[in-house]
Amino acid sequence: MEFLKAIELTPDLPPQKIKKLSEIAESSGFDTIFTSCHYNNRDSLLTLAHIANSTDSIRIGPGIMNPYTTHPLTLASQMATLWELSDGRAILGIGAGDRSTLSHFGLKHTQTLLHLSKTIELLRSLWGGEQVNYEGPLTNLTTHNARLNFTIGHLPIYIGTQGNNILKLSTEIADGTLFNNAHFQDLSIAMEYANDCIALSERKPGTFDFSAHTCISVDLDAHKAKNASRPSVAFIVAGASSKLLQSHDIDLSIADSIQNLIKKGSLQQAFDKVTDNMINTFSISGTPDTVSLKIEEIYQHTGSIVVGYPLGPDPEFAISTIGSILE
C-alpha cells in the first residue's frame, strides 16, 4: 500500500498559475496533487488536465468530488479520461460534499452512505468495462444499460470525511481515507477507530491508507498565515458536527452563523466570524518553525498526509517550505 505525501491546490487561481504551482510541488517532493472542487472556482478536472501535461510522475486527482452534483456515469468518463491523459497517474478523492455548497444547487445530504457506496461500485464496474443498471429510489440515482467503450487500469479511490460513519465505510470499500482534521488527538482517535474497523473486517492489514487531510498555512509572519486560513476554517466549521465543535469549546451559535452565511453566499462575513480558537483547532497556521513541529508530529504518526488549502499567503514559498519539512 502506497501512502500519500500529497498537496491540495485550489483553482481559485488561473490555470497557468496552478500549473506553475504543480511543477513546484513535484520538484519539492510531493507525490500527489489534489485539486479542490468548488463550482465558484475554476473547474477542477479541466485544471487537472492542464496539470497532467506539465508534470511527469506525480499522481493527480480531484479532492473532494461529491456524488450529488456529478452523475456516476459522467464521473466515470471524466476520471477514466484523466487516467489516460496522465498515463495512469489519476487518483480520485470523493466524499459527501459540503452542506453549505450543496444548498446552492438546491441539494441536501440524503442517504449519504448508500449514495457514496453505490457511486464507487458503479465507477469501478464502468472502469472495468461492465454494463451497469441501477434503480435507486432512495438516492435518486438511476442508470440503464450504461457502459464505457474503453477500460482503464486501477484508479485509487479515497473517501474524504470528518466523522466515523463515512470513515467506517472507507475502510470497507476504498483504498484510503482523507480525514479532514488538523488536531493531533482527533486524528489519533480516528486512526484508532479505522484500525478497529479493519480488524473486525476481512481486510488485510496494510491495505488501507489513513491520510490526514490538514488545513495548513505557513508564512514568516504568523498573523498573515492565520488570516490566510480563515476561509478554509470557515468551511470546516460549517461542515463539522456539533459533537466535534463542542469537544473543542467552539461556540455553536457562531458556528451556525458561519454555516448560514456561507449558504447565503456571504463568504467574507462568514470568514470574519472565524475565531482564533477555530483557527488553532482546525488548522496548522504560523511560522515555519511552528508549522514544522505540528506537521512532523502528524506525519510521523499517520505516515500519510494531504497538505490542505490555503498553504499560505505566498503559495510558492509555502509549497517549497512544507516540502522541505516533509523530506
Concise structural overview:
Helix content is 49%, strand content 18%. With 327 residues, it is an alpha/beta fold. The two termini are 20 Å apart.
Uncertain segments are none
One letter per element, helices H and strands E, the order comes to EHEHEHEHHEEEHEHEHHHHHHEHEH
Distance between the termini: 20 Å
Number of strands: 11
Measured on Cα atoms, how large is the radius of gyration? Answer: 19 Å
- Backbone structural class: alpha/beta
If you consult CATH, what is the topology of the largest domain? TIM Barrel
Q: Work out the helix count.
A: 15
Strand content: 15-25%
Mind telling me the CATH class of the largest domain?
A: Alpha Beta
Mean pLDDT: 95
Helix content: 40-55%
The structural domain count equals 2
Largest sheet, if any? Answer: 9 strands, parallel
Shape: globular
What is the CATH superfamily label of the largest domain? Luciferase-like domain
CATH architecture of the largest domain: Alpha-Beta Barrel
Topology of this structure?
Elements: E1 5-9, H1 15-27, E2 32-35, H2 44-54, E3 59-62, H3 72-85, E4 92-95, H4 99-102, H5 112-127, E5 132-136, E6 141-146, E7 157-161, H6 164-173, E8 176-180, H7 184-199, E9 209-218, H8 222-228, H9 230-239, H10 242-247, H11 252-264, H12 267-272, H13 276-282, E10 284-286, H14 288-302, E11 305-311, H15 315-325
Parallel strand pairs: 1-2, 1-11, 2-3, 4-7, 7-8, 8-9, 9-10, 9-11
Antiparallel strand pairs: 5-6
What does this structure look like?
The protein is built from 15 helices and eleven strands. The protein is α/β, with parallel strands linked by helices and 327 residues long. It has two domains: 260 residues, TIM Barrel (Alpha-Beta Barrel), CATH 3.20.20; 53 residues, no CATH class. α1 crosses α2 and α9 crosses α11. The chain starts with a strand and ends with a helix. The model has no long low-confidence stretch (mean pLDDT 95).
